[in-house]
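Good morning,

Attaching, inline, the backbone tokens for the sequence recovery test we're adding to the shared suite. The designed sequence is right after.
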């Protein structure tokens, strides 16, 4: 089978031929149709996830995807052959990712979540949404804002940002989003009330204009501690700051004026189920910025690391 792998944590991803995997006890074999690119994918390629899971080379990249169940290992009963499944394919050992024609995964993954696709959901969209959708939902739940509250989203154009904006708007929040000027109109259509061009405006100066009475919350998707700290100064006493990118420093977390937290995605099966239900109900728009072939995936991963995403990149596999 074709797969995009790294064979060490210092090399770039490349496309290779590998033997098809076989499902072990409690595992399913999935023929992948689509995968999508997330920051966690290149984190895995550099060894940044070593503390969370074991690695085995060649390490096939990719966590999010959609595929058809082709075979069941002994004792696997949760899915049937032929089921179309989606989710975050993250097991005990990082080895078989979604950037491949086939993968094996425990039917109840230790670190991820896999479920059947709800009726009527486009497989491309289902492949694009798991990690980003679960993260947006979980982070907003942690912020626990009320209708009418003001929220600043730092880094609104990526996969998590475009979904978080929609969920925030549906919750009747007033959303200010940082984005480049050329994406501002689209960001407003997806739910932002106000935008800040981070390329030409200092965040502190801009907030004095967009939100002069202060913010109730900040959602950071960038991971720049300086930017998070500046934004936190504009949060009202008792407000909340949540970063999904490690942007909250120990110093900021330790102060008591606002609650500041680095969010680690939790309760994945329930969150994936919720995201799937929202997709099936037509409650989320998932902008797919780019679709590439598996052959083009190594270059697409490298391009994604440079930032500036305008939605999701989907990999067409099978």
């Amino acid at each position: 089978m074709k797969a995009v792998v790294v064979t060490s944590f210092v090399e770039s991803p490349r496309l290779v031929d590998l033997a098809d995997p076989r499902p072990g006890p409690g595992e399913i074999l999935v023929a992948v149709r689509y995968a999508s690119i997330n920051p966690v994918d290149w984190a895995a390629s550099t060894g940044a996830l070593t503390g969370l899971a074991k690695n085995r080379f060649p390490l096939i990249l990719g966590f999010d995807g959609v595929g058809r169940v082709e075979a069941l290992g002994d004792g696997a009963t949760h899915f049937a052959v032929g089921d179309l499944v989606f989710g975050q394919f993250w097991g005990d050992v990082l080895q078989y990712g979604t950037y491949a024609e086939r993968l094996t995964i425990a039917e109840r993954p230790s670190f991820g979540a896999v479920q059947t696709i709800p009726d009527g959901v486009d497989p491309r969209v289902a492949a694009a949404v798991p990690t980003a959708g679960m993260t947006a939902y979980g982070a907003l739940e942690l912020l626990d804002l009320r209708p009418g509250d003001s929220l600043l989203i730092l880094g609104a154009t990526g996969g998590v940002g475009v979904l978080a904006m929609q969920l925030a708007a549906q919750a009747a929040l007033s959303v200010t989003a940082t984005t480049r000027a050329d994406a501002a109109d689209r960001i407003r259509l997806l739910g932002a009330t106000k935008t800040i061009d981070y390329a030409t405006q200092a965040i502190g100066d801009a907030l004095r204009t967009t939100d002069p009475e202060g913010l109730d919350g900040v959602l950071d998707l960038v991971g720049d501690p300086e930017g998070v700290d500046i934004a936190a100064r504009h949060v009202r006493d008792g407000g909340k700051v949540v970063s999904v990118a490690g942007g909250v420093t120990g110093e900021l977390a330790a102060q008591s004026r606002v609650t500041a937290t680095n969010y680690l995605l939790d309760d994945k099966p329930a969150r994936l189920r919720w995201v799937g239900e929202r997709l099936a109900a037509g409650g989320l728009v998932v902008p797919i910025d780019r679709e590439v072939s598996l052959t083009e995936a190594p270059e697409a991963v490298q391009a994604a690391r440079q930032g500036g995403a305008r939605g999701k990149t989907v990999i067409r596999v099978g």
